[in-house]
Amino acid sequence: MTSACITITPFGAAGEVTGSSYLVKTPHGSLLVDFGIFQGTPAAREKNRVPEDLNPRNLKAVLLTHAHLDHCGRLPLLVRAGFKAPIYCTQASIEMSRLILEDAARVQESDTLAENKRRVRAGLPKIAPMYTEDDVVQTLALMRPVEYGSPLALAPELQATWHDAGHMLGSASIALKIGHDSKHTSVLFSGDIGPRRSPFLRDPVRFHDADIVFMESTYGNRDHRTMNETLDELSSVVLETVARRGRILVPAFAVGRTQELLYHFATLQREKRIPALPIFVDSPMAIEAMRIYAQNIDYFDKEAQDLIRSGQLQRELANVKACPTVEDSKALNALEGPHVIIAGSGMCTGGRILHHLRNHLWKEDTTVMFVGFQSRGTLGRRIVDRQPRISIHGIPVAVRASIRTLGGFSAHAGRSELLAWLSTLAPGSPRVQLVHGEDEARQSLASAIRDRYDLVVELPMQGVEIQAP
Ligand SMILES: [Zn+2]
């Protein structure tokens, strides 16, 4: 076998951060690594399809790095187009994919319903949702679990191994070995690389051998604020709120960020830096994600495992209350005294946070604490930009609350950590393909890699085939 027979074609996340997917063609069969949706722009809907030059029936398998929608969100389209082979990922990724894909289907179905009402009034033809819960059920039925570190033989000379990427529960980098032991090509997909020392998760595994590496570059041009600075800020927000007996509203993504925040609250309470004020998790999806976390403790780092197995974390978080029902959520309206409400969505584009903002954003004893990036065009961004008045469900609301943004939480490694991740691979001179980053970020990281490690770095384009070395 010669490596000239191996090609890799990106079907997304080339010069942007969504739509991750690669077609890998080998003499032993073709695979997809990830099949994520494009998000965030009006053009995304048009791009969310199965590429014409991809025949789903010819694929041997899909290898999934992790369950975020921008990595798994197009899988139901693939299944709808006739894909019937296995989708391999970790057990935690299967459970997270179930949660995230079912939610995505429900959101698409209800968005389509609303859009069609508008279209009927405007005399336009109706549209169909991208996919339905039924398509998701078919997709989940194809998922097969793999273990970190155990090579999976897809063919006698085609092997894939998942390694912890520390980015979300069950996330992985995937190493492909194509050929036999004495002569083979190693293709490495970093997946999304987590920061080191993030709560619950283990640090991302580093690699020593690859011929070509597809590496994420989301924060290729900058570092995050340090976790210590961020926790200092979190405790000062809590102390201010306690002093004025107000409330903190936290728009947070249900999966990952909410659990991470609770962990930080527990740490600060343990260190007696903040009192244990009531914390309400007002999100059915976040509550379900917490259940999945609790059932997958083996995936956690040692510190989190010890805290949970000894029952300490559960005792420390006795001040956290779940609000699964709408009635539970409404009961929070009348609540007096300092407390925290964590509710989705993370950018205030929907979900229960909107009700809390409508009820409390105009009060001076409210603090809205943002813990994630707010995209242009979202309600969250308008609040962060301190527009004097915003509109929620058509009702004008004055922005009198205190607005705080905590910059240090991220599920992605910053620039310095990305460079450190590559340091163990660099001596073997792999060809580096920078993906999953906007052009400014990946160009900046590319020059840093060339300067520091003297490697060949390329910025692949969507749909353009790359030959493995
Ligand atoms: Zn991700």
TL;DR of this structure?
The protein contains 15 helices and 22 strands. The protein is of the alpha/beta class and 469 residues long.
Bound compounds: zinc ion
The oligomeric status of these chains comes to: single chain
- End-to-end gap: 13 Å
The number of strands is 22
Radius of gyration: 23 Å
Describe the structure.
It is globular and about 70 Å long. The protein is built from 15 helices and 22 strands. Strands 6-5-4-3-2-1-22 form a seven-stranded mixed β-sheet. A seven-stranded mixed β-sheet has the order 7-8-9-10-11-20-21, with helices on one face. Strands 14-13-15-12-16-19 form a six-stranded parallel β-sheet, sandwiched between helices. The model has no long low-confidence stretch (mean pLDDT 95). Helix 4 (91-121) packs antiparallel against helix 5 (133-140) and helix 4 packs antiparallel against helix 8. The chain folds into two domains: 3-222 and 412-467, 4-Layer Sandwich (Metallo-beta-lactamase, Chain A); 227-405, Rossmann fold, CATH 3.40.50. The chain has helices at residues 44-47, 69-72, 75-80, 91-121, 133-140, 227-243, 257-270, 284-295, 302-309, 312-316, 326-331, 353-360, 379-384, 415-423, 439-453; strands at residues 7-10, 21-26, 29-35, 59-63, 87-90, 143-146, 152-155, 158-164, 172-180, 183-189, 212-216, 247-251, 279-281, 320-322, 339-343, 366-370, 389-392, 395-398, 402-405, 431-435, 457-458, 466-467. Strand 17 (389-392) and strand 18 (395-398) form a beta hairpin. The chain is an alpha/beta fold and 469 residues long. The structure holds zinc ion. Zinc ion is lined by residues 66, 68, 71, 167, 192.
